[in-house]
Write a structure and sequence with these properties.
By secondary structure, the chain is α+β, with helices and mostly antiparallel strands. It is about 35% helix and about 25% strand.
Length: about 220
């Protein structure tokens, strides 16, 4: 269990899963730079993250920009959207909300500006949100959903035991790195091309003067 003072930003788990160095540059060294991908993502979330907006339609309640935290993972953050679906049959751990009587099941929905990824970088972030909600409300959340802005599609993600264990492992690594205050060395790979911090990363780690493009060209060979 972590204390309130130890909590890290939940959204950082996606950065860490993508590249531990990127996460350290942002969350330890406090460096950030936008590219077109991050700007598109911010624009999409502006349309979603309004905590004053609560929708109710077809029996489903939609709560937006919901604060979440977990002392077990040591995370705090914001869930884009929580869908509350009425339970047709009682379960062991239903969700209750004062404004809407009855029993509900919770489905966290994360908005992404791009499209489905072949890796689990997005998956660990959504699963971490679910673990936070389960801890906060004593409920069970078996699955969540993604909405991808580029393809306008929605996909369901099951929160398997394997995925949950990976979230816990990544959280432990992030806290250890944060306490140590250490930024990992750069490792050039194909994903560097889409990283908004690539020039800061190479310049800081390799002390390159005007030779960043040389390294980027290696990715295209």
């Amino acid at each position: 269990m972590y204390s309130e003072e130890d909590l890290l930003m939940l959204s950082g788990i996606q950065h860490y899963a993508f590249c531990p160095r990127q996460w350290a540059l942002i969350h330890i060294e406090q460096q950030w730079d936008d590219n077109h991908l991050t700007i598109e993502g911010q624009w999409l979330h502006r349309k979603v993250d309004d905590p004053t907006e609560i929708n109710f339609s077809a029996g489903t309640v939609c709560l937006r920009a919901v604060p979440v935290k977990s002392l077990t993972l040591g995370f705090f953050g914001i869930a884009d959207l929580l869908e509350l679906h009425p339970l047709t049959e009682p379960t062991e751990k239903p969700f209750h909300i004062d404004k809407y009587p009855g029993m509900w099941t919770v489905v966290p929905v994360e908005y992404k500006h791009g499209k489905h990824k072949d890796d689990d970088i997005d998956d660990v972030q959504l699963c971490a949100q679910a673990i936070c909600l389960e801890e906060m409300y004593g409920i069970s959340i078996p699955a969540g959903s993604f909405f991808y802005g580029a393809t306008r599609t929605r996909e369901t993600l099951a929160f398997t035991e394997t995925l949950r264990k990976k979230v816990t492992k990544l959280a432990e690594e992030m806290h250890a790195l944060f306490v140590a205050g250490t930024t990992p060395a750069a490792k050039i790979s194909a994903k560097c091309k889409s990283c908004s911090l690539r020039e800061l990363c190479f310049e800081a780690d390799m002390r390159l003067s005007g030779s960043v493009n040389h390294y980027l060209k290696q990715l295209e060979e």
